[in-house]
Amino acid sequence: MNKEINVSVAMATYNGEKYIREQISSILINLSDNDELIISDDGSTDKTLEIIKSFKDERIKVIEGPKNGIIKNFENAISNCNGNFIFLSDQDDIWKPNKVKVVLDEFEKEKKLILIVHDNKIVDSNLNLICDSFFKFRKCKNGFLNNLIKNSFIGCCIAFKKELKNHIIPIPIDMPMHDQWIGLIALKNGKVKFISDKLILYRRHDNNSSCFKKNSIIKMIKLRLIIIKNLILKKEI
User: Residue 65: CA atoms inside 13 Å, Cβ hemisphere, count?
Assistant: First the structure.
């Protein structure tokens, strides 16, 4: 009889050989024997898959990505998660050893929570500190309207309950990023909490899929219209 999986980690990978060993090691420390790390690989041509397989850990499950961009790669990973709680992970950060425990404790304390996002320390490729708090740097705020105007959700710091999965999938392909979609859908369907604990080292380098550059006003307006369109078109389950 299969044991119930409590925690699933959804990771999207593509040519991440430089940092992925360190990231996976930091994740596995957080997981129990019955938890799982779902890795959707989008066709890596470097040693990413070789490094993943070298762990020889039954909790790691590698699936083939859709090869249609990072949003669909994350969607694929999330779709294959079986746990009661789903944590998102990039391929190049480092988790603190108490990350999962701190987040699960928050879910336990507040039963109505459907999603949690925690703070992080921003570091460079060599783990030198850039900024002590992403929340302060980004001026993060809770609330639907706040996050429709300016996204405070950062995917690698998000965890949510399994019942949210069917609300967020499919993720519209034209969304700016998956994390804002997940955050807004969570705010529409339950209680969301931002916690100040800095539970990962968020690595910034030239190959990051997201960036800190500000868009022009015209582009910002266009992106918000896309988000609003997708929210309107979304069919509730």
Answer: 23
What does the block give as tokens for 70? 């990072």
Q: What is the DSSP string of 6-30?
A: -EEEEEEESS-TTTHHHHHHHHHTT
Q: Is residue 75 over pLDDT 80?
A: yes
Q: Other C-beta atoms within 10 Å of 126: how many?
A: 7
Q: Does the pLDDT value for residue 134 go beyond 60?
A: yes
Long-range contacts of 208-212, Cβ-Cβ distance < 8 Å, separation of 24 or more: 208/92, 209/70, 209/90, 210/177
Query: What DSSP string runs through 151-164?
Result: ----GGGEEEEGGG
Least Cα distance to 39 among 88, 106, 4, 111 occurs for 88
pTM of the entire predicted model: 0.92
For residue 181, give the nearest of 94, 66, 36, 74 by alpha carbon: 74
Question: Buried (b) or exposed (e) across 127-136, using 16+ Cβ within 10 A?
Answer: eeeebeebbe
Percentage of the chain modeled with pLDDT above 70: 94
Supply the pLDDT for residue 218. 82
Closest to 136 in 3D by CA, of 196, 201, 187, 208: 196
Strand-strand pairing, 94-95 and 191-203: antiparallel
Name the residue among 158, 119, 156, 117 with its Cα closest to residue 137. Answer: 119
Question: What residues form DSSP beta bridges with 38?
Answer: 10, 61
CB contact burial 24-38 (16+ within 10 A = b; e otherwise): bebbbebbeeebbbb
Q: What is the end-to-end Cα distance of the chain in Å, rounded?
A: 30
Q: How far apart are CA 58 and CA 172, in angstroms?
A: 32
